[in-house]
Amino acid sequence: MLALNSFGNAYRGRRALVTGHTGFKGSWLCLWLRALGADVTGLALDPTSKPSHWDLLRLPMNDHRVDVHDEAAVRRVFAEESPEIVFHMAAQSLVRRSYCEPVNTWATNVMGTVNVLEAARHTPGLQAVVVVTTDKCYENREWAWGYRERDRLGGHDPYSASKAACELVASSYRTAFLQEPSSPLVATARGGNVIGGGDWSEDRLIPDLVRAVVARNPLVVRSPQATRPWQHVLDCLSGYLLLGQRLLDGDATVADAWNFGPGGEGNLSVEEMLRAFRRTWPDIEWQASSGPHPHEANLLQLDIAKAKAHLGWHPVWGLADAIHHTADWYRHWIEAGEVSSAGQLDTYVSDAIASGAGWATA
Question: What's the rounded Cα separation, in Å, for the pair 210 and 161?
Answer without folding.
Answer: 29
